[in-house]
Amino acid sequence: MNNTSKYPLMLWVFALVTGFCFSPLLAEEEAVKTINSYVVKAGKAHLGNGQTVDNAVIVVREGRIESVTSGGAVPEGLEVMEVAEVTPGLIDANAKIDVMDAMLYPTEDPRLSILRALGMEDQYHGGDVCPCGTVCPAQTLHRHDESCLFCGYPEHDPHAHAHDEEEEEEELAELKREAMAAGVPSESGLITDQSSEVVPQFEIMDGIDHGSKDFDRLLQEGVTTVYISPDGSAVIGSRGATMRTGGPITDRFMGTGSVKTVVGSDAYRYGTRNRSPFRGFVSIYTRRPDSRMGVGWVFRRAFYDALLRARGLEPTGADKTSAEASRVLQGVLAGDVPMRIQARTGSDIETAFRFANEFGISFTLEDPVEAWKRVDLLKQTETPVVFGPIFDQPSGITAGSREMRNRRLHTVRDLSDAGIPMALSAQDLRGEEGLARQAMLAIRYGVDPAEALRMVTQYPAQLLGIEKEVGTLEPGRRADLVCWNGSPFSALTRIEKVMLDGVLSYERN
Amino acid sequence: MSTLTHKFLTLGITLLLFFQQGVAEAQSSPKVALTGGKILTVSGAPVVDGTILIENGIIQAVGGADMAVPYDAMEVDCSGMILAPGLVDAHNPAGLDIPNENLSVAPFVDVYDAIDPSRFFFENSLRNGISTVHVMQGNNCVVGGVSRIVHPIGLSPDEMTRLPGIALKMSVSPKGGYDRLRQRAELRGVFSEFDRWHENLAETRYEQEAENSDDLDSLPPAEAREKGKSMIREEDLDDRHRHLAYLDGGKLGAWIHCGAATDVAPAIAMIADRGWTGRAVLVLSGDAHLAAAEIAAAKVPVVLDSDLIHRERDAITGEVEETFIPEVMRQNRIRFALQAGRSNVMPENLLTYQAARLVRNGMSQEQALRTITLGAAEICGVAEQYGSIDKGKVANIVMWTGNPLEMTSWVQKVWIEGILAYDREMDARLQRLFPEMEEEESSDESKEMEETSEGASGEEAQGEEGSTEEGAGAKGSEETEEAAEPLKKDGKSEEKPAPSPAPETDSASKGGL
């Protein structure tokens, strides 16, 4: 693993030292030897827009691509790097990445939002300990004359929950096991906020660990830009973020993205907090929905509330949407805020279109496993699709929801042939099943290799509205280059070098 | 019954029999010639435009285009295709109904009893070009059962089995619920008990022989045991000890599972102590590769876990270090074989993809292909029959549409013992998951689509991050106008007719709202 920040520093130190020693001799060379200006000579350059250039000479200056020519002249004074084949940096438009402690310490204190939703904000005190002496998950301000909303104090016996660290650890472990059983991946997975079903005012950006090793890993696999989408455990979840996988940590954030919504079983099956009342005591953590119908209702209700508020009317009821959420959803209705709908099964895809029609919203379809059933619908509406992983069995999220049983290997080919704008994604898969291998599989399952490349470069860039910055090897774009030792996406070739903003960020030793 | 009917019936049956015979002959023709393909023999150089002559399931000759095809051979044109030996899966419990026997010490069992011919595993193996499977019990044992070599086709274990009694499975690493102390104690216990039983049997046998023979004098026990060893007959072995006796006597291989580096040394010591050298194989998993130097010194071949990568998180720094295990083996010059993954995740269960991973990490394509064919056959001790396209070997041949290690290649046909066992065009399950396109029409269509998609995607892109207006091209703007209306006038947007083109099913369900 190369450290991206150390490398230029060392070179600068070297340049300075040599500069002091031989300043009269090397003054000229020193001036041009910046780390993000050089020439890449490639046997073949895949531009990412469907075109290829043989014997390509790519001039990179100040981290941007200056020109791409076939057999062109090398500007004087620039270092030359020779590689076999080169593609633009890959873009994953639906990456799942570590979000720091999203479950236990979410972006906004979920207790506050719950209480706010219940109109009981005054009860919030931010404390941890229930008067019974245990750590109370509800953690609301206890009143003497009312029992605890979560544990039932004082009705329950506090001594049954004596403060025992070991026991608590065990309970936490049990919680984690439950979460695992529910399909929540422990490490690379992502937990969106579960304090409410409607949290479009949250941003995943707040939970991202910018120094996460996951970014380094993605970078090694040639992925230079990711769109991090929340998972599907809330019906209307938080907003995603477009991120660079390398470079200075402060420059990595590229913008806030769509509101993530879910039609399907994730929002009631997946997650640890969805319990129907009969499965335990009723508490504020007893959340609806418990079925697809419920998910549909929460979806509609959120938008109805937004429409009501737009007319100056205040919605009523304990499960009404918060005002902040409504403001964001009004943005969605007005077309200012983009929206993604995750719908995997054929019927869920149809439902997604029904909802979108109902409210006049356009959207991007995320993870449509059974898209092959409704290629016609997708084609007719020209809805952009983020598809993948093609083999999603290792993905705990999808597997846990049991929504992948009717996948077909030809889906990706059918979508491609229908001309549906599509981005491929590996979600939480890395390494052997990462994004490059998704493109490999797409080619195996009938997609034209040039199209497969566009599905991981140009199309996701267009989808994310960053096609002027990344996604193709064209003059003016950021110099995100992936160098291969042979034909990209072949099972037999590997990534040799990755440049991000022109900086050599990964090199195979 | 009238005589006429009877006559017709007889004629019918005769005709039927005749045709059946004809079909049967065509299918299991004693002579098959595969011509025109590029042959990757694995043992030698590839033959371009080569011919393979198969007779009675055995490869009779391999030659170039000039080789004569016998007049009575069924000729199969393989031009444009690549012929490679059927892949050898060196170790796999996936063909068993349950991979492990519950009893920790069960040397008396045989995978024969547990092979389930209806497992998808076998069907998938064939589809992925694996023609020879070493079916062995899983790693969760102290002393497990006996393995066998099967072909992944047939309706019963008998039909599938080609070579029974290949090796006995053992584990030095603790089985589920055991700790290392108990595991090792039980393992030692098995063999000390066996040795005692064996010595007693030898002594008894000597005494029996001495009683019946005038030439033999009765001897003190120690000498009687020594001399009696050669007098033990097959019928003297009981079920519990038979396979252990075969193991010590050289009839069975010793395959020992090592789940951690710490288990390698005891396994190697055991191999040396009990004289299994030359027929012992270590089945590695976990971090056992860390003991590569010891394995290399003992010259024991290994079978690797299908994951191939070992990940270790540093407890203090949290750094995850990845090791590509085959590379460790290669650097230490340890012979290794691979096994197909047991999940249905494609890259894992394709031996060819695993071989491609070896190539990505620096191995030559020839070596990588050899690892999953001849190399695996050698480690299983069946290289005389399997693993390459050579005269005298079993005619397990796979026809690939391209380089077997490329993911764009597909298994087109598989011959097992010269009989066509798999044909992609007849693979109903694959057709369902991945139907082939009509070649010419589809390519034209897709080109047209690409053109339209370019225009569309350009507009869509801004719809995602920018405003919804560009969402669906020109229509999108109409949509948003209509969508914005309810915001001003009333909230009852559901009463508005669907603005965007919706197919019949959609509008139908809308009516229900």
Structure, explained:
The complex is a heterodimer of chains A (509) and B (513). By secondary structure, chain A is α/β, with parallel strands linked by helices. In chain A, the strands form 2 sheets. In chain A, strands 5-6-7-8-9-10-11-12 form an 8-stranded mixed β-sheet. A 7-stranded mixed β-sheet of chain A has the order 3-2-1-4-13-14-15, with no helix packed on it. Chain A has helices at 6-32, 110-117, 165-181, 213-220, 266-269, 292-310, 323-334, 346-359, 375-381, 396-401, 411-417, 435-444, 449-455, 458-463; strands at 38-46, 52-61, 64-70, 80-88, 90-95, 223-228, 236-244, 253-262, 339-342, 364-366, 385-387, 422-424, 481-484, 495-500, 503-507. In chain A, helix 6 packs across helix 7 (323-334) and helix 12 (435-444) runs antiparallel to helix 13 (449-455). Chain A has 3 domains: 34-88 and 473-509, Urease, subunit C, domain 1 (Roll); 91-100 and 197-470, Metal-dependent hydrolases (TIM Barrel, Alpha-Beta Barrel), CATH 3.20.20; 110-181, no CATH class. Chain A starts with 5 loop residues before the first helix and ends with a strand. In chain A, strand 6 (223-228) and strand 7 form a beta hairpin. The N terminus of chain A is likely disordered. The radius of gyration of chain B is 31 Å and the shape is globular. Chain B has 513 residues and is α/β, with parallel strands linked by helices. The longest helix of chain B has 33 residues, at 180-212. Chain B has helices at 3-27, 120-127, 157-160, 180-212, 221-228, 239-249, 264-273, 292-298, 325-331, 346-349, 351-360, 365-371, 374-380, 428-433, 439-465, 473-488, 504-512, and strands spanning 31-39, 47-55, 58-63, 74-77, 82-85, 87-92, 130-135, 143-146, 148-150, 161-163, 167-171, 253-258, 280-284, 302-303, 309-313, 320-324, 336-337, 397-400, 411-416, 419-423, 471-472. Chain B has a domain at 87-375: TIM Barrel (Alpha-Beta Barrel), CATH 3.20.20. Chain B contains 17 helices and 21 strands. In chain B, helix 8 links the parallel strand 13 and strand 14. At the A-B interface, strand 8, helix 6, helix 7, helix 8 and helix 9 of A face helix 11, helix 15, strand 21, helix 16 and helix 17 of B.
